[in-house]
């Protein structure tokens, strides 16, 4: 049929299906070909492309499980790993190769385990059984591979499991296996020190070996055992004669010529034996005595012209120093280090300086012989060498060489690097303080250091020098002239400027005196001195502390010089509006002295009293003791309580005493000296007692007043307020204030605390000084502020005469409840009616409304 024929023709004309083309698989490269391809890559991208293709072939080969070619694929992967590319997918193949019975597989497998596995990965534990089987049943090459792998990747668990097998291999006849076993034992001791008992017996036998590798490993193993086990240290002290004999053989006849370096017989073994002897002889008299002669022989017969000989000598020196060696042997060790200082190699000189610095305390006299060489090392251009030389030079300073060494160090200070100036300056100052032959030399030394490197000295250098000058009364004129000349020459060194300003302020009148014969008389006028201090104040180099010194010096010169003080007053008034709070406060106080208390200026600004250096008052200032003033000292101002009604308290008695005249200028303490004004130590006469008086008793809080009148000053009354608490709750934030009429003078000292403990605990005391020059009846208004039972309380009392009881509660204020969980200390120094001993209080109050406190600078 036509249709069928056409259908058949259609089927017959349908093209036949083409066969699927075979997948093109590039042949895998051999290791040598892979190395050539990678080295031939011109760019990093080409190198990565070659490595990615080959890694794909390696992965495919691993998946197909081609056992005969597995070690070749892993070898290529290890090379890729050495180039820094990831190869972690070959870890399991390493385990398979290690378990293989063929040596070619084991060799590559162990190498891969050492490179791809470590103890941080759990896969390394899977090779423990394979290593154990190879150690016990394998051939010597296989045992060597297993021991090397154990020494490289063995964890603490593997070491515990395989310690017995390694201990057996230490006594095998094959030197190759024993050497590998010793190295594996060293690794095990470092990982698990508890295994030391296992390796003690075979170590003694290993010292008889003639094989260099085994003997070297045995000495290293014994060293590790002695460092980690006291029992091993005691055990191996018996082999000291044997070690000494080994060292003698190395020094005299040599161990073997193939291990000699630059004519030195086996320096590596000598160093290891010396290190072991140092450990065995430390703190052991018998062992040290056994090795003394041999150490002297090594020290004298070793060639120092080569670096290998210097290494042996250095180890010999360390051994001599650490053991209980003879004194002559220690001197020999120091001399060896002295020869090292003359070596051209900087590394050897550095090692010598470091070692001498360790020996300077125990062998000071021996190290002193090399002092000129050490001083020469200060001029080294290498910063590390010069720093070590500086440290050693400072350690060599004593009372006999203080002058010469200080001169050398001061010369070094002038050209030393900036990072060494602080250490050098501090070292010179400390050495001068310890070994100064005279005070004048001490002052000259400190002044030279301040002139050369004033910006790098310690913070206490200024205070130390001012204290030193103040204590040397016979050198006041010399010091002030030297400092004046130094200040006129340079005002950039701030510590020097501060000392000079202090000294000029204290002893400025000596600049104008011509009675001092040791120096040439200065042709100085008062105006020149004032101009120099003004220059310091105006200099942009001056720190705020330096300006404070200069301002105080100007103020003190107002009482030292005989000329007009108008210039000083103008300068001081300028700084009354200074932005610096410290300078502003000081200037305001000084202005108040000029305006209202000029009659007391001479007494307040008199010379600072002498303070004994190093006395108990310098270590722990107590009550009533003066502390040397420093501008950098923090002023500990008491925390102020709320002052809402404080100013009203001052005006409570104005109406009753408005016509009273201000009292004359009288001292609060007998004698009229500044020591009494500032409560400094003085011989206070016995005080006549007056019966006390209880003024307050409420809710367990009691306040009593006791009175004492000094016989020499009848106008002065000392009142001690004592607050006690018998209730079950503490009285916190306790503040005691007082006010008197203007005809009186009142000073409140700092209270002993601000919390009155409950149930009869230690009371709080506070002293009030009241001066009554007119002998008028004393009227006093007292104010209490405290927290009790969770409430804030304020109470005011007023009394006409102290012989009568105060009328309680004329004015009574009880505040709202406040949180009293905090017990921060609030101490108020409240000065009523501005007594003449603190004239600065007439200045305007601070903008914050705080109560001014006693100025610590006068």
UniProtKB/TrEMBL annotation:
Sequence segments annotated as region (Disordered): 609-646
InterPro entries linked to this entry: Adaptor_Complx_Large_Subunit (IPR050840), AP1_complex_gsu (IPR017107), ARM-like (IPR011989), ARM-type_fold (IPR016024), Clathrin/coatomer_adapt-like_N (IPR002553), Clathrin_a/b/g-adaptin_app_Ig (IPR008152), Clathrin_app_Ig-like_sf (IPR013041), GAE_dom (IPR008153)
Protein known as: AP-1 complex subunit gamma
Xref: SMART domains: Alpha_adaptinC2
One of the GO biological process terms: vesicle-mediated transport
Family that this chain belongs to: Belongs to the adaptor complexes large subunit family.
SUPFAM superfamilies cross-referenced by the UniProt entry: ARM repeat (SSF48371), Clathrin adaptor appendage domain (SSF49348)
Topological type in the membrane: Peripheral membrane protein
Top-level taxon: Eukaryota
Gene field: AP1G2
Coiled coil regions in record: none
Main location as per UniProt: membrane
Domain GAE, chain residue ranges per copy: 688-803
Compositionally biased intervals (Polar residues): 636-645
Swiss-Prot/TrEMBL keywords: Cytoplasmic vesicle, Golgi apparatus, Membrane, Protein transport, Transport
């Amino acid at each position: 049929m036509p249709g069928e024929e056409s259908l058949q023709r259609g089927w017959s004309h349908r093209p036949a299906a083409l066969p699927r083309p075979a997948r093109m698989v590039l042949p895998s490269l051999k290791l040598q070909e892979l190395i050539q391809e990678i080295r031939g890559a011109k760019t990093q991208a080409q190198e990565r492309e070659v490595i990615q293709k080959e890694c794909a072939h390696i992965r495919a080969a691993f998946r197909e499980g081609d056992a005969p070619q597995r070690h070749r694929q892993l070898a290529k992967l290890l090379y890729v790993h050495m180039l820094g590319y990831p190869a972690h997918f070959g870890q399991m193949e390493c385990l398979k190769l290690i378990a293989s019975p063929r040596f070619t597989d084991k060799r590559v497998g162990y190498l891969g385990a050492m490179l791809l596995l470590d103890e941080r990965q759990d896969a390394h534990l899977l090779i423990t059984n394979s290593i154990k089987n190879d150690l016990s049943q394998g051939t010597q090459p296989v045992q060597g591979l297993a021991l090397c792998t154990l020494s490289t990747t063995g964890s603490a668990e593997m070491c515990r499991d395989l310690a017995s097998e390694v201990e057996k291999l230490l006594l095998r006849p094959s030197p190759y296996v024993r050497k590998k076993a010793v190295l594996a034992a060293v690794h095990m001791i470092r990982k698990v020190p508890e295994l030391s008992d296992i390796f003690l017996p075979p170590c003694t036998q290993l010292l008889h070996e003639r094989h260099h590798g085994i003997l070297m490993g045995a000495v290293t193993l014994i060293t590790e055992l002695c460092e980690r086990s006291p029992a091993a240290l005691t055990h191996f002290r018996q082999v000291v004669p044997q070690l000494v004999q080994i060292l003698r053989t190395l020094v005299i006849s040599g161990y073997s010529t193939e291990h000699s370096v630059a004519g030195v017989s086996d320096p590596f073994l000598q160093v290891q034996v010396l290190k072991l002897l140092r450990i065995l002889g430390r703190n052991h008299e018998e062992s040290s005595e056994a090795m003394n002669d041999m150490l002297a022989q090594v020290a004298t017969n070793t060639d120092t012209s080569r670096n290998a000989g210097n290494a042996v000598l250095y180890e010999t020196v360390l051994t001599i120093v650490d053991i209980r060696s003879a004194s002559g042997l220690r001197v020999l060790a120091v001399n060896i280090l002295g020869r090292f200082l003359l070596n051209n190699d900087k590394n050897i000189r550095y090692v010598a300086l470091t070692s001498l610095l360790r020996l300077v305390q125990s062998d000071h006299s021996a190290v002193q012989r090399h002092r000129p060489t050490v001083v020469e090392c200060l001029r080294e251009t290498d910063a590390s060498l010069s720093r070590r030389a500086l440290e050693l030079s400072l350690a060599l300073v004593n009372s006999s060489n203080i002058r010469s060494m200080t001169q050398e160090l001061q010369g070094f200070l002038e050209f030393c690097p900036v990072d060494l100036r602080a250490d050098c300056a501090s070292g010179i100052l400390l050495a001068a303080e310890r070994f100064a032959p005279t005070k004048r030399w001490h002052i000259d030394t400190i002044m030279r250091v301040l002139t050369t490197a004033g910006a790098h000295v310690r913070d206490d250098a200024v205070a130390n020098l001012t204290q030193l000058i103040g204590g040397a009364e016979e050198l006041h004129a010399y010091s002030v002239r030297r400092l004046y000349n130094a200040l006129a020459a340079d005002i950039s060194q701030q510590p020097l400027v501060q000392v000079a300003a202090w000294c000029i302020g204290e002893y400025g009148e000596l600049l104008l005196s011509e009675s001092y014969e040791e120096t040439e008389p200065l042709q100085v006028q008062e105006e020149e001195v004032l101009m120099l201090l003004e220059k310091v104040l105006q200099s942009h180099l001056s720190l705020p502390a330096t300006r404070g010194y200069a301002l105080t010096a100007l103020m003190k010169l107002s009482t030292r010089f005989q000329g007009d003080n108008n210039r000083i007053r103008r300068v001081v008034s300028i700084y009354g509006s200074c932005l610096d709070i410290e300078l502003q406060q000081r200037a305001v106080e000084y202005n108040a002295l000029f305006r209202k208390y000029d009659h007391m200026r001479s007494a307040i600004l008199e010379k600072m009293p002498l303070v004994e250096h190093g006395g108990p008052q310098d270590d722990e200032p107590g009550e009533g003791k003066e502390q040397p003033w420093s501008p950098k000292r923090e002023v500990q101002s008491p925390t102020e309580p709320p002052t809402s009604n404080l100013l009203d308290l001052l005006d409570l008695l104005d109406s009753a005493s408005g016509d009273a005249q201000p009292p004359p200028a009288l001292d609060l303490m007998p004698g009229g000296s500044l020591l009494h004004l500032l409560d400094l130590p003085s011989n206070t006469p016995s005080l006549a007692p007056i019966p006390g008086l209880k003024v307050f008793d409420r809710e367990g809080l009691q306040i009593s007043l006791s009175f004492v009148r000094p016989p020499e000053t009848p106008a002065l009354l000392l009142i001690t307020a004592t607050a006690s608490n018998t209730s079950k709750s503490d009285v916190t934030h306790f503040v005691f204030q007082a006010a008197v009429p203007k005809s009186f003078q009142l000073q409140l000292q700092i209270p002993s605390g601000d919390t009155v403990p409950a149930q009869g605990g230690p009371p709080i005391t506070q002293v009030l000084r009241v001066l009554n020059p007119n002998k008028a009846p004393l009227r006093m208004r007292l104010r209490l502020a405290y927290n009790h039972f969770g409430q804030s309380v304020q109470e005011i009392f007023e009394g006409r005469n102290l012989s009568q009881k105060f009328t309680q509660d004329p004015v009574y204020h009880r505040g709202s409840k406040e949180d009293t969980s905090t017990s921060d200390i609030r101490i108020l120094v409240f000065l009523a009616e501005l007594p003449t001993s603190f004239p600065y209080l007439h200045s305007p109050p601070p903008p914050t409304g705080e109560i001014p406190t006693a100025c610590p600078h006068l």
